[in-house]
Amino acid sequence: MVKHFRVPGRLAIRMAELDVPVSAVLRRAGLPRDLFEQVRVLVTTDELFALWRAIEGVSADPLIGLKLGVETKTGRFHPMAIAALSTPNFKAAVEHMARYKKLTAPEEILSGIKGEEFSVGFRWLLAVDGEPQALTDYCFSWMLTIARHGTGTGLKPVRAEYVHARPQLRAIGRTLGCEVVDGAARNVIVFRAADATAPFVTRNAELLDLLAPQFEEQLKQYREEDSFLELVRSAVQDRLTGRRPSIDVVSDALHLSPRTLQRRLQESGSSYQRVLDEARHQMARYYLGNSGLELNETAYLLGFEDPNSFGRAFRVWEGVTPSNWRETHRAATP
What domain range includes position 322? Predict the structure, then answer.
């Protein structure tokens, strides 16, 4: 399974337009300050959730997720969205995007027509915790953006359903233009079945045919990149035995020069330091959740100079101390 998301660069642009300081968000999320300057913005599920929780925390606007999902400039659309808008209707567009997500991210877009309604929901396959509310809002708003661009109308959903309580139900309803309920079984945005099958004014069979080969090549490239990152991460983890493996050691194990390894990681939207952090993070969760190792032993095995350095790094990753994370995990696990 693919384990990373590629965050659209337009997100940083929209944050700046809505007066949400990108640097403050990245700092609060514990993400690299040059994240949006990378060739491809690549994050894990935990990092994606941390990013959206940071957006919630930095922004004073409870509707920030809904506003970030609105886009009027088609020039900023991801190729996936452009291809989706070239399909016959909204239902086909959602199915097109669902296929793309299935192949490029640990996420599913779930949709279906039942009676007079067409529902769209999102499932985060590697999530440990529930998704941030702003992320759910963003997904709902983005789907509405696609529907309105495709149909060329200001169509409104029938209903938005949230699992958790939302104190701003009326404000959300005014923004989306529909009824909003919480306490639902799942997070879904519901449209009329007629809107799902109404022809797209943006339909362009020629463009879709033109984009298809590029689309398939991009999917292939994404799979190859993720496989390469997994290969590097595994090489790092194999050498996390009481010392911090250098890029020279890992590149030698992969029969690459350090320069080539750095270049390929950058092309994949990552860096050696980032892969090292991800490898340490994964192993830290494993050691804390599945072994009787003491914290200082875990810090040693992960190549940290001392337990305090490990504790600081773990708080950046998880937002809590290693001991608190372990206690919470043990309490939640029978």
Answer: 242-332
User: 200 and 67 share a domain?
Assistant: yes
Same domain membership, residue 262 and residue 172: no
User: Residue 236: which of 277, 297, 266 has the closest Cα?
Assistant: 277
For residues 11 and 104, membership in a common domain is answered with: yes
pLDDT in tens, 234-268: 888 888 877 889 999 998 888 888 998 998 888 77
Q: What is the pLDDT of residues 201-247, one digit of tens each?
A: 988 766 666 566 666 666 666 666 667 888 888 888 888 877 889 99
d(CA 228, CA 127): 22
Nearest to 274 by CA among 23, 14, 39, 105: 39
Q: How many angstroms separate the CA atoms of 300 and 306, rounded?
A: 7
Domain CATH number, residue 78: 3.90.1520.10
Compute the distance between CA of residue 306 and CA of residue 296 in angstroms, rounded to an integer. Answer: 7
Q: Which two tokens stand for residue 175?
A: 């923004």
Number of structural domains (the chain) is 2
| The model's pTM | 0.69
